[in-house]
Amino acid sequence: MIPKECKRLAEVDFPLSIVNSACVEENNRKTRIESGHISLLHSWWARRPLSACRSLLLTLLLPDPCDAACPKEFKTKAREVLSSEKIGPKDKDLQKALFDFVSKIAPWDSVNTAGFVSTAQDLIKAAYGNDPHVLDPFSGGGSIPLEAQRLGCEVTSSDLNPVAWLLLKIALEWCPRKGTELTKQFDIWSDWVLKETEKRLAVYYPADDQGRKPLAYLWARTVKCEGSNCGVTIPLIRGLQLSISKQRKKALRIKYPSGSTDPSIDIFSYNNDGEIEKGTVAKMKATCPKCHVVTQRERVQAQLRDKHSGSDDAILFAIAREGTNGKKDYFKPTARDFEAFNKAAEKAKSIHFDMPSFPQNDTRAFPPGPYGIKTWEDVLAPRQKFSRWIIHEIIEDALRGAQKKIHDKELFNALAACLYIAYSDNSQYHTSLCVWLSEGVKSIFIQGSGIPFRADFVESNPLSNNCDGLGYSVRSIQSALHLLTSTHPHPVSPLLANALDPVLPDESVDIIFTDPPYANQIPYAHLSDFFYGYLHLGLKERLAKSFAAGQTEKARELTENRAVSEGGVHDRQWYEYGMRQAFTQMKRIIREDGVASFVFAHKETDRWEALVSALVQAGWCTTGSWPIATERRQRMRGQGFAALETSVHLICRPRPEDAPIGDWDKVLGELPRRVGEWMERLQGEGIRGADLIFACIGPALEIFSKYSKVETADGSEVTLTRYLEKVWEVVGRSALEQVLGTAEAKARNGAAGALEEDARLTALFLWTLQASNNNSSGDSPDSGATGQGNGLSSPDEEDDDDTGSKKKNGFTLTYDVARRFAQPLGVDLHKWEGRIIETIKGDVRLIPVAERAKQLFGDEGAQAVAQELERDPVQVLQLSLFPDFDIPSTPRIRGRKRAGSSSLDDIEFSYQQQATTLDRVHAAMLLQASGQTNGLRSLLKSEQERGPDFLRLSNALSALYPPNSEEKRLLDAMLLAIPR
Q1: Complete edge-to-edge strand list for the sheet that includes strand 294-295
Q2: What's the pLDDT tens digit per position in 272-326?
Q3: Which of 41, 74, 429, 775 could form a disulfide with 468 if both were Cys (CB 3.0 to 4.6 A apart)?
Q4: Contact at 8 Å (CB) between 124 and 61?
C-alpha cells in the first residue's frame, strides 16, 4: 500500500486526446452484437464508455514516478512489469512508459489483447502491495465497477435502483461466479423460448399472399372533427410521406367516401413532393382533411383521454414488409391482417399486467399523462399487450422446465434474471409510444430523458430479425455474457443501497470513482419503472428482496424530480442538500491518502457552482479536471447549441483537517497563471468551447479549495460564488486574448484600442460554441436503446407534445452561460437584445447575419446601400446602419422618389448611431451574398483606410464560425475580395 506519508503523491499523467478518440470510437461504433460490450446486456441511461472508466481509473491508481515522494519500490517493480518495453534510466522515462501503457489499454476492447489486463493488475499491485479498494456509490449501468473489477481491485458497487442493481448483479457477480454454466443454460433455454415464441405468435403476424413477412404496422390514433356540420374521424398522422427512396416513392392520401365519416387511406407512388398533402396533426393540433377546421390541442387531449390514449381504436394505415431484394416496401393492410389483429385484441381484453403508475405531475418529462395514460400498461396497444403476455408465459414455461434440471438455486435465479432482462429490454420497442423513423422502429426512450406522446405510432413484429425482435435481445445478452465471463474476474456482490447509507467504515476506501445523477436531467426511477414492471412480473418471488415492491423507490433517489411525491418535495434545494450529504459520506469513507473522481456534465453554470460548493463544504480539495468525451456526438439539442461533448471528471482529494486560511490577493494572483496553463494544455489536446470552459473549473478550484477558507485583507470570508465569478472572468479574458488580441482581454466598458461590445460578445459566443476535436457531430451512433452507445438518447426527433415554437436558425447558448461571460467583461446583454442576440425561453440566440439585412440596410435593401457606398462610403458608414430598437426602427422614405431611384438621401433614420465594426463586417458579408461587388469593393477600401479593426475582426470570426456554416462561407468569400 502507498505509505500515508505519501498522501499528496501525484497520479500519473492522463493521455486525454488518446482516451477521447477511444471513447468516440466506442460511442459511435455500429451495432455489433458479437462485440460483447456491457451495454448489450440491457439498456441504461448515461452509461459511461468503458474506455474512459478504465483509463482514468488506472491513472488514479498509479503514482507519478517523477513525484519526489514516489516510493523507490514502486519504480523498481513497475520497470520489471514493463520489462518488455525499452525504458530509459530516468524517472521521466518510466513516467512516459506508464503514460504510453495507459494509452494502449484505452480502447474498450483492449481487454481481448493478451497481457494487457494482467500487466495493469501487476502495476497496481506494485503501487499498493495488495488489491486497492474502489467505491462507486452511483453505479448505474456498471461501467466503472466493471473496469475496477477487471483491474483486480476490491470493489464496492451500489445503486438504489433495482433494475440497475440487477444488471450489476449479472455482470459483476453471476458472470464471474457461474461463468460458463450460466452462458450454457441461457443459450439452451433462450433458444427454446425463441422457437416457442415463433410457434405461438406467428399466426398473429401473418405474411401476405406472396410470403412477405411484416416488419412494422403503422397506426394512427383518431379524433372527431369538431367543425360545425362535419364530425368526420380524423386519423392523426404527422406526415403523409412514407418513403423517399427513388425506387419506391410512397405516400398516403386521405379521402372520405360519399356519405361516410370514416376515412379511406390509400398508398400511392408519387413523382414529386408537390403531390403529397400535409399531415393532419402538428403540435397535437388536428386539422380535418375534409373541412380543414383545426381542433385545438386541449380538445385533442380531451378526446384521447376519454379513450385512454386512443390506441385501442387507432387506424392501421400501412404495413412495412420485406420487399424485393431484401428491401422494405409499404402495403395496405389486408383482410388477413385485420383478422389476425382482431383475434389478438380480443384475447388481450382479459390480460392485466399490474404495471407501475405513470407520472402525472411532470408533463415536461412525461407528456403522455394528459392523454389518458395512467400506468405503464396503458402504453401498450391491444396486440402488443397480448404478445408481451404470451412471451411472459413462454419464459415461465421455460423456467419450469429448467428448474427440473438445474439444482443450483443461484444458477437458476441467474438464468431467470437473464431471460427476463431480454424480455424487459425488448419491450421498449413494443409500445404505442414507439416511432417509425428513418424507416426503422425506434424505442419508447428515443428522447432519452423523457417519454414523448405519439399521435401516430409503430407496432413492431416481435419475430423480426431487427433490433425490435426478441431474437436480437437474446443474441445481445448471449454476446455480453460470453465476454463478461471470459476474463475470469473475482466476483463482486453489488449493494442495493442509497449513496447516503453508511455501508462502509471510516477510511476504508482507496479510490472513489463515481458519476452522480445530474439534478433534473434524467428521472431514473420513473423511467426505469417501465423495465421494472416486466422484471417484477417474473422476479417478484425469485428475487423478492429486490423486486417484491410494485415499483422502484422514489423517495430517496438523489434527483431533482417534480414527479416525486414520496419523502417530500424533490426540488433543487432537496437535491443539492442530498448531494452535499453524499459527498460528506464519501469523505468519511476515503483514506487520508485516497483520491477521487466525480463526473459532471451539467450545462448550467449555477448547477456547477452548487455541486462544487457541496464538494468544498464536504471537505474535498479539487486538484484537476479532465474533459473526457463520454457524450455522443449527435444528441437531442442538435448542432449550433453549446451542449457539452465531454463529461468533466473532477479529480479530488480529502482536504486535511488542519488546512490553512488562504489570502484572497494571493489566490487571485495565482488564478490567471493556473487557468492559462490548463487552457493551453487542453487546447493542445483538441478541447474547445464549452468543454474547455467547464474543464477549467477544476484547476481553478485547486487554488481555492486547498484552504479551509479564504479571507480578504480585512478578515472577511470570500464565498465560492464570488471566486467562481473571477474564474469566469479570467477564462473569458483569456479567450478574448486568443481570438481578438491583448486589447480585448483588457477591455472593459470600451477601453481604448478595443473593439466594441458587440464584437466581443459575438467572439466569445462563437468561441464557446466551438466543438472539441473540431467535430460537432459525427456519424449517427446506434440508438442507446438497443443496448448500444452511451445512454438512451437518439438523433433529434420532433416532439408532438412540444408546445414551443419551431426552433429558429442561429447559434445558441444558455442565458446563464452568456451572462457569466458578459458581465465581468463589461458587456450589457440587454443593450444588444434584438440587435445581435435574441433571448428565447432561457436560451440566447446569436441572430444570423442574414436576419440582420433589414436592420442594417432598411427596406431599401443591400442594392440601395451598395449604390451609395460606390458614391461616398465614408458618409454612408457614418449614418446609422443599425437603429436603436427601443425607438421605431424602420427607415421611412421622405417624399416621392423617381422611378428606379434608391438614394439614401431619401431615407430618414429615426435614430442615428455610429455603426460598429461588427455592423460593417456583417454589412460586407450581406453585400457579398447579394452580389453587390462594386459596393462591397468600396466598403472594403474604406475600411482599409479606416484602420486594422475590420480585418482583425473578420479574420477572428472566420476562425470561429463552424466550418460548414453559411456565415463562414460568406465571410471567407468577402475576405478574398479585400485588395491586397
Answers
A1: 281-282, 285-287, 294-295
A2: 999 999 999 999 999 999 999 999 999 999 999 999 999 999 999 999 998 767 7
A3: 429
A4: yes
